Amino acid sequence: MNDRAAPLIPEIVPIGLGDRSYDIHIGAGLLDAPGSFDGLPNSSSALVVTNTTVGPWYAERLVACLQKRHKVVHLLALPDGEEHKNWETLQTIFDALLAYACDRKTVLYALGGGVVGDMTGFAAASYMRGVPFVQVPTTLLAQVDSSVGGKTGINHPAGKNMIGAFYQPQRVLCDLDTLNTLPPRELSAGLAEVIKYGPIADMAFFDWIEANIDALVARAPTAMAHAVRRSCEIKAWVVGQDERESGLRAILNFGHTFGHAIEAGMGYGAWLHGEAVGCGMVMAARLSERLGLVDAAFVARLKALVERAGLPTVAPVLDAEDNAGRYLALMRVDKKAEAGAIKFVVIEGPGHAGTRSAPDAVVAEVIAESTVPR
Q1: Domain check: are 161 and 207 in the same one?
Q2: Which range of residues forms the domain containing residue 272?
Q3: Is 245 a catalytic residue?
Q4: Could you confirm whether 253 is annotated as catalytic?
């Protein structure tokens, strides 16, 4: 499959945040187009942060393009994997910035998936109390979710993304060609974040995903371009109203409370983030059903789509003796928890989501039901 289509005029999705506003550029061939970076801050130096998997594919091309803008472009390749999203790896970025004598005008470019983007953004937010950075996401999950909206951070053994900052990039550049080199498992993981936008905000989009899921799995360019654009439009609309997740933005975490518990409980990297979210969405839909908000047909429809995307729908057992207790303990350190009370994103009706608490006994029933294949 050709992964280097001729550069095209990108579609642009704006994120409206006042003086922190920026654009998402979506298209094929953008990585090699110098115009992709027009209008970004000028600086004598730049640091491209990538990982050991993505770097060999795309780092040389990005560096060559950026050398037309910056006098010096440094490159740092981090170890790949969610298990490396920690203080030690973050320190590696700071070490490089200091070793290269980077100043407060140095621009950081995050070339990779969600782990690279989150850590590079957190480093940019922290180094000299804030330097500019640009997201260049190369996974579907990062293009439709993690690169957009300014959430940055690292994991703690007790909870995912518990340490970080809200810090907006200067631009998000989604080169659709980079999805051609994505392993099938990573592609499926990204589809989880695409699917989530339907139940929480746009059932017409959900209908479209159902009709086009086979094309998305096959990476059909037209279908993929629409999925990325519509996902970014929905996220831009939500973030534009609630940048720091004081209310509406929480709906973007549909499936994540259960999913984060799976990731932390199994050990980061055992399941991909999108795999955990896919299973977590089915669990959250079942909770919504038990709360009387949706019917069994809706849950079955969502479960079927998640399965067609190649994602797991049977939850893992985290503790053979007290599985529900282990899940509940992990979910109580979720970012949405308040005073120890777990806040779940539930579907209040197809296309509409909200946050609610639920009795532990009801959640335990959902967990028990979800760990049994059916």
Answers
A1: no
A2: 184-370
A3: yes
A4: yes
